[in-house]
User: Fold these one by one.
Assistant:
Number 1:
Amino acid sequence: MKYKAIVSDFDGTLVGKDQDIPEPVIQAIKSFTNKGNIFSIATGRMYAGRIESQVKKLGLKSLQITRVGSEIVDIIGKVIWGKYIKDNEAKEIVDYLKQKNQKLYVDKDVSIYTDENIGTEYGRQVKPLSSLEYLKIPKIGVLGGSLTKFEAENLVKDMGDKFHYINIFAAHNPRGWGLDITATGATKQIALLEWAKLNNLKREDIVGVGDSYNDYPLLTASGVGVAMGNAVDELKEIADFIAPTQEESGILEVINKYFQDK
């Protein structure tokens, strides 16, 4: 079987705590796309900022899946496809998380709305929650590092029982565990199928790679699902192949294994 594309998670798959894609991986991806293959990122993050800069560094021209599958964007950040939490439902979720004293944020447009001190990474993109307009909200979250894995999993269950119209995932990034919350119909699975249509590809053409819970839909929608060596056990259980860890630049093994003749 000749595959045509790799769709890869970002945190824990392409990058680690230093947040930079290793140079050997950059060169391998450039060589991969120069041969006519497609490489795209499927991330929980917004496009503006870190993802945009890494897309430019990789020289990608492809569409990217962002905000846990809520949006598909082009290389200038224009939204090509999107699914959003209903306005009143978004307000209910924010109020619930406030009542639970969770360190929450709302990810919208090119801004992060939060009352938490999240450092300098987002710069002027950070705005207070009080300034949020509840309109076309793609993603609500609990900050990574504010929960243990156990707490994140329990909160997923509690919110799943209370809110039946959203997708909730325990999310892990370099800071630790948090939550990703999106609309029904906004997962990496559904976004990948839309992405495939936009690229005139079949799911069988795609190799999906990830490491965390929100990558489960990505792997199930791909022709081949690859879990990183550092992935959660639940993802490894459904994977067709387990690559070396992110620290070992496991994505290189994925390229060599599935695209060695291209």
Note: The first strand starts at residue 5 and ends at 8.
Number 2:
Amino acid sequence: MAVAAPGQLNLDESPAWGSRSVDCFEKLEQIGEGTYGQVFMAKEIRTGEIVALKKIRMDNERERFPITAIREIKILKKLHHDNVIKLKEIVTSPGPERDDHGKIDGNKYKGSIYMVFEYMDHDLTGLSDRPGMRFTVPQIKCYMRQLLTGLHYCHVNQVLHRDIKGSNLLIDNEGNLKLADFGLARSFSNDHNGNLTNRVITTDEVNWPGVSKIPWYNNFKPSRPMKRRVRETYKHFDRHALELLERMLTLDPSQRISAKDALDAEYFWTDPLPCDPKSLPKYESSHEFQTKKKRQQPVNMKKPQRRLQTSIHDNIAPSHSTVWTKRRDDSD
């Protein structure tokens, strides 16, 4: 099997990928945009299946395939889980350059490349931003359980996501939550002792004499050590929710709770229990890109409804809370 050099995409690793044109799909509407490119809701013309097309931005890559896209493709090819977004295929627009054997050379590609994903109706940010949206405790636990299950699967398969946020947590109208956007993800090995984040090198005052004399130095220097205030700030939270939150926000990675252990936390095993995903309400498509666009529109005659704050501690309706009846098997 050929291996792509850094900055290259070897479509030969998956012969079917890259063999179809984006013309096989009809773009319906844009649902996302970022430094990576644009995301469109689209329909496969032959089957009518709704998918998400992620157009990879090539503007600043000096004719090389973006390294973040290469990482995402390679990682998603090896991850197959209900709580991880599925990469279905790669398609191209007219303009490829081919090698002597007629195969597409990802390093000399002049057209556009799209990643084809399964379509998800919402992302968590867009869904949370809906006017009047308020999650119940069983719903919050349902989403959190799926998030941690997906993370645990990634860690077992030696993948760090490194970009967990609401817009990267996709949800469909069946209540399924999936991790998405693996552009910043990294693979690791158990014997890996190196850093997995960018290195920032600085110095201390001993090695930088006179630093305290620099104008504004003392203005930016904390006057005293910052006190941990999680319990004080969120004292109104349920006790088990607060305990789990504190353990997940522990600064020292060696002391921080793992995704696997978090799934066995008391929070998930006390009433109200996580609801069944299929019992979650269905909503009109809600993505951060769309809700942000609506907020930026000029104010119309009718004022938008004020957003209600979602709170993890509000126990509004403990219905559909009989999904979990026994703890996870310790052997998992």
Note: The two ends are 33 Å apart (CA to CA).
